[in-house]
Fold:
Amino acid sequence: MKILAALDLTDNAKAVMQKAVEAAKQQNAQLVLLTVAEDFLDLGDVMDTAGVTDKLYKAAAQAVEAAKAVAKDAGVEAEGVVKQGVSPADLIVEYAGEIGAGLIVLGSRGKKGIERFLLGSVAGKIVTHAPCSVLVIR
Structure:
């Protein structure tokens, strides 16, 4: 079985990693660490979005490498992947299907009210559309 840990760049990623490593050990599963670097819409001359996107990609790559080291220290070998796109939820669900994941472990920021209505819930979209079981860490 493969366990896909979907990591973001928040403090919650530590808790996600702990649960993903624990599950990988219990299930004797392969651990795959995924971070999505979000693309920004092209704003032309208003803002250098390419520079922002590049910085986000580099930060995501560093986060994946750090997470791999955490997994290794816990005795679990992990593969690290960085995807880039506009919709993290869609990319996570798609990648879980591609690798045949049996479990997705991810965090939830717990947005409420108008912020959740306007932005949607990445975790909610993944739970709804995932091709496998999903463990949401709060």
Observations:
- DSSP finds five helices and five strands in the chain.
